[in-house]
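Researcher: Dear colleague, please comment on this protein.
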Amino acid sequence: MFYFIVITSLLIYSPTCLPSTDIPQMEVLYHSPDSTLPWPPEGTAENDPPAKWPGHKEQLGKRHPRVKVDVAYKKGFPSAQDFYTNFVERKSPVVFSHAVDNKDYDFLSLEKLNSSGRAALSFVEISSFRAKEKEANSVRNFVNTMMSKTFYVSDSLHNNYKSIFKLPLCLQCSYLVDLLVETSHILMGHVYPLPVKQSGQDVLHCQVDGSKEMLLVDPKEYPEIESLLELDMAPKGRASLLNSLAVDYEKYPALTRVKEFKIALLGPGDCIYIPAYWVTQSNILTKENSVEIKWTPSSWTPDSDCAKGLKNRFLSSLSFPGEKYFGVDPTLDKKGILVDKVSIILDKMLKEKKTFNFAEFMEAIVKDEELLPELQEWTVESTARAKEMFNTLDMNLDNMLDSKDVESISTANLSKLMGKMEDRLADMMDMIMDQRVDISVAGETAKSRSSIAKQIMKSNPLVKEEL
């Protein structure tokens, strides 16, 4: 029983992991809070042995007074000025209900990750409860085949997702941007108790999928709580080996001096602000798909100017020195633009059709204005370049494109695949630019995409030969 707390502690902070054990049923405490309970409880004296106190060998917080964290906004985030003035400056935790269950963030939902070309291109380190070694695999393969087993992901938010993850409204202040430290993304398919921990950074934690119950304690109000934190996980913070499902007051007598817990229940789309140095313990109640943004707890008092230019900023344009990530201008982000375009093609292979032959592949890319903007006409050269692209994507060499080709993308072939796709897409764009010049000089009109598609399916000689 003791070992699962070690496991989850290491899950958040360490590159190693230990074998797991069965997890007993957790109780949801949020729906039965009673902030009026006396502490010490009636019949318990301050000098009683810790083992005699109610709650010994029971779930953390079960017998304590519990106060619900305020839900200040029912839909979305507040402005940076409201956020700072009402919560950050006061070091007061708060829940923002349904803040990320909208079109701006739904790309990160498990449903989308399960069928996403971007997820197929995003490789992360996957840990196991049964082995210390990690393995690299795509986010899509993890969600599809590994999440329900004894595996989990605890990593920085992948750069491919930073490029489409908008900076939340409550953080849109240039003074705060300079204080950003790191992000995290956790995926787990199990009910699980996470360790007692303390971060030295302010945290915005967002629950994309699944539900979680969280206990919080302010160490300024109850400094005894910090005696639990025997694991130094610098520079991220500290953690405890305490078994939160059967708390041993004899080993951790300081818990009898904590007179009150704050408690929050997060569902899909909910976010919570956790002030720096607050001690927390969370229980995953269903499954876990969450993202965190962390920043240094320094003053960043917003004013009317600090939000300018940040409304549509993506995380990829910002720096996170704690993960050695440095922001890049989206217009100069060649890698990000390439990922966007290759993801569009992979999405077609995963969503629109079970299989594509060469002609159908060409028809599909011709119709996509985002993939081939300002396309003027389709020539023999166009077909040749498209054929090279088709062959690059045909990972299993069966002259068809489908989900099996996407599943064949691995760390061993990813770099080569993206390099070839970059070259082929660049060839296409050079060809389109030449077409624009030629058609303009000749005073002709560009063909419609629908007419080009018909040409491909009916009259292109290379397509006929291919078919």
Notes: Residues 1-21, 462-467 have pLDDT under 50 and may be disordered. The first strand starts at residue 66 and ends at 68. Residues 50 and 249 are 5 Å apart (CA to CA). The radius of gyration is 27 Å.
